[in-house]
Amino acid sequence: MATVTFFHAHPDDEAIATGGTMASLAEQGHRVVLVTATRGELGEVDDGFLDPEETLAARREVELADAARILGTARVAFLGYEDSGMEGEPSASRPGCFATADLDEAAGRLADLLAEEASDVLVVYDEHGGYGHPDHVQVHRVGMAAAERAGTPVVYMATMDRDFMREMRRRALEAELASEDELEGADTMGEPAVRITTEVDVTPWVATKRAAMAAHASQISEESFFLSMPEDVFAEVWGQEWFIRVRPEPVDLGDGAREPGLVLDRSGAVLGGGTSREGAAG
């Protein structure tokens, strides 16, 4: 069995981006470790949602613990930085936030966790963090440096299939399932289909993924775009998760084919995941 560490920026990112893969690996008996850079202190929440004297960071820590339990995660750890907020906001340049963290120091913290866990696999984000959030971009930088320092043999970047996202955006607008505002930026998320090496079919775990997303109630309400979808639409949109294998170097499977699961050791054999699907044309 392997130890797979998922490195995310904020609570709820794990459920949205990699929840199905985490649940599938845990069900197969692998040790799934979740490291979160921040506690999501700057997330938005409705007035009156929090209890008196309760902080959003404290609530999100509880929500993350619930989501991790649902996904079968063996350990949750925080890297200890503060939420940076969105790109261009003053919060993203203040001392103490993750976006301004010293790269060497932050990578050292994560490398220590990787070494402690003897992690076989590290999952980070793609180079622009999926959609450009400063903390997500920093997850990529810190994660790649930490993997190098710790000698982690297998590294993946979690991403989204941009071609798929554009098609889902078109269909959602056509069916009036969402507004332009709700889908803002969807057509630039992730990476072009031709870059994606791995597509995990997580439909057997889509209900688990939805429950983990719902555990983050401060950020994802039942009335949100995410959870208000009909079950069949939710399964179509969230029933696959995408990755780019960094190392070991992926083998070209030909004809746009993608690995159906994560490689869990340096041999390059695909040991985890679901059913293979053919990649879209780029």
Salient structural properties:
282 residues, alpha/beta, Rossmann fold, seven-stranded mixed beta sheet, 7 helices, 7 strands
Q: What do the pLDDT scores average to? A: 90
The residue fraction in helices comes out at 25-40%
Gyration radius (Cα, Å) is 18 Å
Instruction: Tell me the major beta sheet.
Output: 7 strands, mixed
What structural category characterises the helix and strand content?
A: alpha/beta
Number of beta strands? 7
- Poorly predicted tracts of residues: 274-282
At the first level of CATH, the class is: Alpha Beta
The shape is globular
Q: Percent of residues in beta strands? A: 5-15%
Distance linking N and C termini: 35 Å
Strand order of the largest sheet: 3-2-1-4-5-7-6
Oligomerization state:
single chain
The total count of helices amounts to 7
What is the compact description of this entry?
This protein is an alpha/beta fold. It has helices spanning 13-27, 56-71, 103-117, 134-150, 162-174, 206-214, 231-238; strands at 3-8, 31-36, 75-78, 121-125, 154-159, 198-201, 240-247.
